[in-house]
Amino acid sequence: MLEELEMGELEFVTVGEFLVEIKKEFRRGEEESVKAAELRRIKQERRTIEEFVQEFKRVARGSGYEEQPLVEEFKRGISGAISGGQELTGLYQAVVQKSNSPQ
Which of 2-6, 47-51, 88-92 has the lowest mean pLDDT? Predict the structure, then answer.
């Protein structure tokens, strides 16, 4: 939006319209930042892997993270006993595939 405004491609009739659009633009980025911070904070701790996966998927939806950064956050949140290597990446891929499949 800001680039379009600078290039003269956007016009607002009132200051109120401009402020509404600015708030929308910044709110989107703020929501994503909050979700990303929450994603970095969650840990499996004493929960089962299924419980952790459910929370992880809920938080990841609005985080803006994709692919490898999301895998890394998933690995970081898992309890130490299962947090290493290819097995965890495979587990994550299975979770992603399952969450993307039609239900």
Answer: 88-92
**Whether the Cβ atoms of residue 41 and residue 68 lie closer than 8 Å to each other:** no
Give CA–CA dist 61/85, Å, rounded: 24
Q: What is the pTM of this model?
A: 0.55
- What does the radius of gyration of the chain's CA atoms come to, in whole angstroms? 19
CA 2 remoteness from chain centre: 23
Domain ranges of the chain: 2-100
Separation of alpha carbons 47 and 54, rounded Å: 11
Both tokens assigned to 44: 């499996």
Q: What is the pLDDT of residue 2?
A: 63
Q: CB-based burial of residue 99 (10 Å sphere; 0-12 exposed, 13-18 middle, 19+ buried)?
A: middle
Q: What are the tens digits of pLDDT across the range 30-52?
A: 778 888 888 889 999 888 888 98
Give the dihedral sign, CA 29/54/51/43.
Answer: negative
